[in-house]
Amino acid sequence: MIIVGNGHVVTRDSRNPYVPDGAVAIDGTKICGIGRTADLRKRFPEASFIDAKDGVIMPAFINTHEHIYSAMARGLHIEGYAPKGFLDILDGLWWNMDRHLTNDLTYLSAMATYVECIKSGVTTIFDHHASFGEIKDSLFAIGQAAQEMGVRSCLCYEVSDRDGADKARQAVLENEAWIRHAQQDTTDMLAGMMGMHAQFTLSDETMNLAAEHKPDGVGYHIHVAEGIEDLHDCLKKHGKRIVDRLYDWKILGPKTLLGHCIYVNAHEMDLIKETDTMVVHNPESNMGNACGCPPTMEMVHRGILTGLGTDGYTHDMIESYKVANILHKHHLCDATAAWAEVPQMLFENNAVIANRYFKAPLGVLKEGAAADVIVLDYTAPTPMNEENIDGHILFGMTGRNVVTTIANGKVLMKDRELTTVDENALMAKIREGAAVLAGRINGYL
Ligand SMILES: [Zn+2]
User: Fold this and answer.
1) How far is the CA of 304 from the centre of ligand 1 (A)?
2) 79, 113, 136, 241: most buried, per Cβ within 10 A?
3) 4 Cα–ligand 1 center, Å
4) How far apart are CA 122 and CA 110, in angstroms?
């Protein structure tokens, strides 16, 4: 047993939202008590103790849209790469990269991403993977890394026709194999979805193939209307808007996650809402690619289950929170916008999304919930309580304030030190892998 105590406990449980001088008791993979530190230590005298040193104890973060395959892009130089817009960025950078990823490099990309997740207090991710250099077993390579690093992962491979029908088929089969494998997982740490890149790289034949091979009980994870080009393509080729096409292919539903949804109209939002489909917003990525600002506030107000992700741009959910907060204020010319909606997306909706795939309650500290707990090194300069905690997080913290990360009852980081791997040795290996990838992309390896 473990007690994490001497902290300000933020539970996200409305019945008991905030415990000053609080503690969380963990038994195995679950939380078994929340209360005052002294009380819990008396109740569980045999438990080992992690001292939060008057910092903040809260549920670990959930990231509902990640891209492990992008890990080795940081600082990458590609000869002749001079993108003029979003499609050039996809083609010249991301698709170029993923064509050179073999499973050994996919594994290292996953390890790199998981290190940053743990160091930012993220213990559950929904990843959207591509490695057209080696498709078969790529999700299993990530799954291996997920298990080694202890991060709960819902994985999928982004099926696309961009490298031909044969590779699209392999991608569908990889999703199917992974989903069936994850469905046998008894640890509640692995899950799978049928990943799809975006409708503009998916023919009707491939849509059909994916539908035929999708096991029951899971949905799709697909980019929707990230760029205006995606909408134009759909109108031109199929004579309908994107969400209509997905609806016609029965892709929408409570288990399906739509990334972005920038160019969706009121009718499409109605379809998303009626089918209880999930949406994930990635503010930094949308801004970085100059793709536009999605109608996220409207989607939340309409009751669409909208979560917050990072699209691989960062692995720090507080960073995503900060940027979503100002993006929508700026976009709507309304300084009062987004105060409540973004924390709702991050702290409530991401948990609801995650629990459509994982059984143990996530994103909350209460008895019986998953023991996914983080400690942040934060000393409040003003009074802190359940009413204003989000203001303290938004303006006072970043992912780097996370000092301790626990997932499924296992301590993955303590006092900023990873407990399961030698971080420096691992990073050296990942840098070697990144050099190999850069060499392949630029044609000298
Ligand atoms: Zn994405």
Assistant:
1) 19
2) 113
3) 35
4) 14
